[in-house]
Amino acid sequence: MTAATRPHAPFRPSAAQLALMLNNFLMWGGFFMVIPLVTVHFSHGLGWSAASVGAVLGLRQIAQQGLTVFGGAYADRFGPRPLIAAGLAVRAVGFALMGLATTFPALLAAALLAGLGGGLFDAPKNAAVTALTRPEDRSRVFSLMGVAGNLGMVTGPLVGAWLSGAAFGTVTLVSAAVYLAALAVLLLLVPAVPGGGSAGRGGLGGLGVAVRDRRFVLFTLALGGYFILSTQINVAVTLRAVALAGTGVTAALYGLQAGLAVLLQYPLLRLAERHLAPHVLLPLGVTLVGTALGLMSLAATFPALLACTVLFSLGSMVVFPSQQTLTARLAPPGLAGSYFGFGALSLGLGGGIGSVLGGTLVDAGARLHLPALPWLTFLAVALLTALALTRALRHLPAPAA
Question: Which spans are transmembrane here (predicted)?
Fold first, then answer.
């Protein structure tokens, strides 16, 4: 009997897994409760330049993605729960201080503190899922984690908008309370997972193992291509939507993407994994995202653009759980945090390049009278990324028990 046909117990989320999903909902909800209002408060309310506020938000993102590498590595040394707990507490303090900031240095310090918190809990959260989930169930749990995160992404801005009539400091305090609630859920319901306890298992030693893993380095670099594409929902796709229907349509664009993820991500994954393994689903999802972006070159109306966005969202729903499942599968026992931390560089690298590349290509297409230029470029990036991922995942070892 092969591993593929061996029967196993039906999947039912455990209390710890449900607690991690609730945590993810609270994390994303607390984040999006505040971040959309930062620009409104400091630019329109206090008269700061958009460039200064954008610099603060950009540096926060860089700090979080850079520190995620070390958060994941030390989760392997000490166990993920202490790192997640520290990250939630630090993020709560950072967001609370944002509400008190009246100068650029004060806001920057609060934002960097919030970024440090995210760097501490991001990869350890995925390491905890890996440790507390059977290999055959990981894609489903990661998919449900994505559903919970998207639900928070929808709920957070609604709560923030409801509170926006109050002082900005009130919103940040509520967000901080949400992170403290997530901390309580973690400590009460998520069991401790022991760390490696030596320099060879976890810490910088574990990070060194990931860096020397040629297959995983290629996998991480290839995933950067996907994040170049995924970033375009905030750059090229948004610019195209505004050009077609005005500034008021961006909420519909983001709402459609998040709503589809909440409703369809888990059942879509269940359907797809009956026929295809994660190492096949991942390049396929990237190809769907690239195809959606390529078809946007033909979208002459906003409804047509929304139809392409649906295809974009379907591809993204397949990519996220497949990427997380494969990262857990490629990690040696006890080093999931190091691998998730190192793998987060693909988001930092690809997202940064994508933000610059998207705007540059849109401007170049307009200047050269080649409006299809950005969209066909994104399609080419998707095909090259899918090819690189297929190569990195050849002869994949069987999942560990």
Answer: 21-42, 88-121, 141-164, 176-195, 216-235, 241-264, 276-296, 302-320, 340-362, 368-389
